[in-house]
Structure formats: structure tokens, C-alpha cells
Amino acid sequence: VRLCGNFGDPATSNATLPFVRFLRENFPQTSIRMNTNGGIRDSGWWYQLGRLLSTPEHLVSFSVDGLKETNHLYRRGVIWERVEANMRA
């Protein structure tokens, strides 16, 4: 299952964590992959997602636009320090 927003980041949905939890509990053989820019939610949310997707068949790709000095040019309102904390979580 690939979670990749065409009109927004999959992390914006309040259903993302419950949906991933549902998939893991009911379809444990399913590989889950997610793309995000990492700018939304707090590190606690990302930690929970990481715990759900902690085995090698799952992947979260942080598709970050630019670096600390340029990210704000591409992602308005995104706080770089939050992106870094979310990736670490």
C-alpha cells in the first residue's frame, strides 16, 4: 500500500495512523510505503508511525524540498527544525 498525497501530504489526515494500524493488524503481510515532506505533525506522531512501520518491508520516504537555508522557499509555513525532529523520530 502506497500512501502518497497527490493533493496534500498523507500525514494531514487524521485517519493515517488508524489506517496503518488497521493494515498492520489485519494484513500483516502487506508492505506499507509513505511519502511525505515531514513538515506536519509533531515528533510524537512520527514516532508512533515509526513503531508501526519498524520492519524492513515498510518505508517512509521524507521528500524534503531543499535544505535548512532553502526549504522555506518551497514549503511555506514549514518549520525546518520540526522537519528534522520528525525525521529523527
Fold blueprint:
Layout lengths: L1 E2 L12 H11 L6 E4 L6 H10 L6 E4 L8 H4 L5 H9 L1
Provide a descriptive summary of the structure in words:
Helix content is 38%, strand content 11%. It has a 3-stranded parallel sheet, with no helix packed on it. The chain has 89 residues and is of the alpha/beta class. The radius of gyration is 13 Å and the shape is elongated. α1 runs parallel beside α2 and α2 (43-52) runs parallel beside α4. It contains 4 helices and 3 strands. α1 (16-26) links the parallel β1 and β2 (33-36).
> What does the overall shape look like?
elongated
Number of helices: 4
Class by helix and strand content? Answer: alpha/beta
> Strand arrangement, largest sheet?
1-2-3
Helicity range? 25-40%
| Head-to-tail CA distance between termini | 22 Å
Q: Overall mean pLDDT score?
A: 92
Ranges where pLDDT stays below 50 over 5 or more residues in a row are none
- The secondary-structure element order is EHEHEHH
Structure described in brief:
The chain has 89 residues and is an alpha/beta fold. The protein is 38% helix and 11% strand. Helix 1 (16-26) links the parallel strand 1 (2-3) and strand 2 (33-36).
